[in-house]
Design brief:
By secondary structure, this protein is α+β, with helices and mostly antiparallel strands. It is built from 24 helices and 18 strands. The longest helix has 53 residues.
């Protein structure tokens, strides 16, 4: 095995990923470039995830690789070793005696035999980084519906930690018995018989018990904290992954504030799982230790304690339906209140510009009043079971003292003063699990509502089915629509009706029409945002729904009318789609977009930091940065959806002047109300109410398309047509090929 030269290490990583995809039957396509892979195992794992495979970056040792080799040979998993120089090698198998591994150099010829490598030689250029890759299986735990059962499975993934916590709880439960037993011994032995040696012995036992309890309590709290952090981390990762998988139309139909509040309810679920539920479980372990001791001290008094516990549970069960209904009303009110808050923050510029503070304050006051009333109603309902339960909870301690004293006076010789005090102390501790269980049932109603809130978002149908990986062709840019009809959900009218046209690869296509004619709908279909259409949408003769969604979007460049810039530098925003691109790529894209001249005038240049909302950039500057971001990936298909509408005339002129250079070698779809920016297009689509009126170059449309000619005359303020042939309107022909 020879180390790869520095000039080929990135190609080695790319070749290793391609070979892994081939072995696992996945379609690699061309969505990944060598220079963007990165040198770390995590980078390669992320690239494998992007092409529809399941990957995990690990650090392994020699003996781990020998055990793994059998799986690699069988093809169930492919192991890629990340070398110190940034290159990669594929694990092909192991020698029968386990003294050698067989590795494949990705850049070698496919029929080249694997190279044997021993442990010493491998250690000289491999530091343990491995990426394990397998096919992604649909229907896994990550794709299951968000329910209480799913949460329980996630919690049980920490069963080893829980085992250790349970052992610690058993030990602590045993140590809980030490103080009551000491009290009983002090009263019945030391005080009665004046035994000083017994007192000294007890003092030593107390010191040892305190020391052990301190150490074990610290360990238990550490384990609880660790398990809670791991569960919380997985929940947060799961929620964000599922959120990113939702289709765009979900976010268009649901207010951001409502979605944010619903997902924010995960904290209540987390607190319940790692708090009340966890503590109740530990208390139940304690109860397993305490109950036998209580029966040993006095069976009669123990039955009194259990009777009180049963009554407490019944009281809580009676009030649970009412608490559940009140909780549902509170959640609904809080959701509406949160929606108003986030909507007001997002639209604060409009609120200030139109002096809408009084109206927004009035709406907020109403939502706060509704939420407060709902919270008070829940508090009143929840207060009753706590009030009724309290006497029974107190009776467990005080009542057992009275009943025990009565039994002792009545002649029960088994109950001494010391044993009665010990029983009262243990019974008070045993009452805690019953009280905790009662509160658990009450809090469960609130958590069930919170689970419903989170599930309302996460259990929506994802944009792409779990494990679904479509074709990943090398997109050249030929686009065709064949009798495409589309209707938005809930709409009574069609956005597109029997739309048919063809655009060859490398052509510049304009899209015009009145508002609501379906211009942006075409771009949404091309991006795979809206898929419920009839007919065929093809790219390079492949139906759009058969192409892998992530691969499709990485092959497109999109610039919208209102583009969002992330917090970070201008360079980071331009390379958001491909963070591994070079600075030269960034400058080239900025120059094409007409953004280079203003970026270089900024104090930080390309490293100028953009705050949230990009207040330090003008609307035109933001738009040009967005155009550069779309161009930096060198997409085969570029969509400009009113991309120049926010530009000033000078900036628009710069972009329009560069359109020919921008469009060189790629297919462009330009949606614009300004027909002057579409003159140089090869062909222009003219839409009206979702139907194709014409599809032809600018000059041809002026001659034969009445609507296009009217739009042109309105925008150019021309009183007379430039050609006598324009004088007589002609009938609009059927949709062109």
């Amino acid at each position: 095995m020879v180390d790869a030269p520095a000039s080929t290490v990135s190609e080695a990583r790319l070749a290793a990923l391609q070979e892994a995809a081939r072995r696992l039957g996945a379609d690699f396509g061309s969505g990944t470039r060598a220079e963007t892979l990165g040198a770390s195992p995590a980078d390669l794992a992320k690239a494998a995830e992007n092409i529809g495979l399941h990957a995990k970056a690990l650090r392994l040792r020699w003996r781990d690789l020998t055990r793994l080799a059998s799986g690699a040979v069988e093809g169930s998993v492919v192991a890629i070793l990340m070398l110190r120089d940034g290159g990669a090698a594929i694990l092909a198998g192991a020698a029968a005696d386990g003294n050698a591994l067989f590795l494949i150099e990705p850049l070698a010829a496919r029929d080249s035999p694997p190279a044997p490598v021993d442990e010493v030689r491998l250690a000289s250029y491999w530091d343990g980084g491995v990426v394990l890759i397998r096919r992604r299986r649909g229907g896994g735990a990550d794709d299951a519906p968000f329910t209480l059962i799913w949460l329980a499975r996630e919690v049980l993934r920490e069963r080893r930690l829980f085992r250790d916590i349970g052992i610690a709880s058993l030990v602590l439960s045993a140590l809980i018995l030490v103080p009551p037993i000491i009290w009983m011994t002090v009263v019945d032995r030391v005080l009665v018989y004046q035994s000083l040696p017994t007192l000294v012995l007890l003092a030593g036992g107390v010191a040892i018990a305190i020391l052990y309890e301190t150490m074990i309590s610290h360990s238990q709290r550490h384990l609880v904290m660790l398990s809670a952090a791991r569960i919380d981390g997985r929940l947060q990762l799961h929620i964000f992954r599922r959120l990113l998988g939702l289709p765009v139309d979900y976010f268009e139909r649901n207010p951001a504030g409502e979605t944010s509040y619903r997902l924010g309810e995960i904290w209540r679920i987390r607190e319940f799982i790692t708090g009340r539920l966890f503590r109740t479980g530990l208390d139940m372990i304690t109860l397993l230790i305490l109950l036998p001791v209580l029966f040993l001290l006095s069976a009669t008094l123990t039955w009194v304690v259990l009777a009180c516990a049963v009554v407490m549970a019944l009281i809580i069960a009676v009030f649970m339906p009412s608490i559940g209904r009140a909780t549902g009303r509170l959640i609904e009110a809080e959701t509406k209140k949160s929606s108003v808050m986030i909507e007001s923050i997002a639209g604060m510029r409009t609120v200030k510009a139109l002096a809408l503070e009084p109206q927004r304050r009035e709406v907020w006051d109403e939502r706060v009043a509704e939420a407060t009333a709902a919270r008070l109603a829940l508090g009143r309902v929840a207060n009753w079971p706590q009030t009724i339960v309290l006497p029974f909870e107190r009776f467990i301690y005080a009542g057992t003292l009275l009943v025990g004293a009565w039994l002792s006076v009545a002649g029960d010789s088994a109950i001494t003063i010391g044993s009665l005090m010990a029983f009262a102390m243990i019974a008070g501790r045993a009452a805690a699990p019953f009280s905790s269980l009662a509160q658990l049932l009450q809090e469960y109603q609130e958590v069930r509502g919170a689970i419903g809130n989170v599930a309302h978002v996460l259990n929506r149908a994802p944009e792409r089915a779990a494990g679904a990986v479509g074709a990943r062709p090398d997109i050249m840019g030929a686009v065709s629509f064949s009798e495409v009809t589309f209707r938005y959900p809930g709409s009574q009218t069609t956005a597109l009706q029997d739309l048919s046209f063809e655009a060859a690869a490398g052509t510049m296509v304009g899209i015009v029409g009145k508002s609501g004619s379906g211009k942006s709908t075409i771009t949404r279909l091309l991006q795979g945002i809206s898929t419920g259409y009839a007919g065929l949408v093809k790219i390079d003769s492949i139906e759009l729904r058969e192409i892998d969604l992530a691969h499709l979007r990485r092959s497109l460049g999109i610039v919208m009318q209102d583009n969002f810039l992330f917090r970070g530098t201008i360079r980071e925003n331009i390379t958001a789609g491909r963070p591994g691109l070079s600075f030269e790529d960034v400058v080239r894209a900025a120059r094409l977009a007409g953004a280079e001249e203003f970026i270089e005038r900024l104090p930080g240049g390309y490293d100028t930091y953009i705050e949230e909302g990009s207040p330090n950039l003008s609307g035109g500057q933001r738009q040009r940065v967005a155009i550069a971001r779309a161009l930096v990936t060198d997409p085969r298909v570029l969509i400009l959806d009113e991309a120049t509408s926010a530009l000033d005339p000078e900036s628009e002129a710069v972009v329009n002047a560069n359109l020919q250079r921008i469009g060189r070698g790629r297919t462009m779809f330009i949606v614009s109300h300004r027909l002057s920016s579409l003159i140089d297009c090869d062909r222009i689509i003219v839409l009206d109410r979702g139907k194709l009126l014409d599809f032809a170059p600018h000059e041809t449309l002026l001659e034969r398309c009445l609507i296009y000619r009217q739009l042109w005359l309105q925008q150019t303020h021309a009183s007379q047509p430039r050609n006598p042939s324009y004088v007589q309107p002609v009938a609009v022909p059927p949709a062109a090929q």
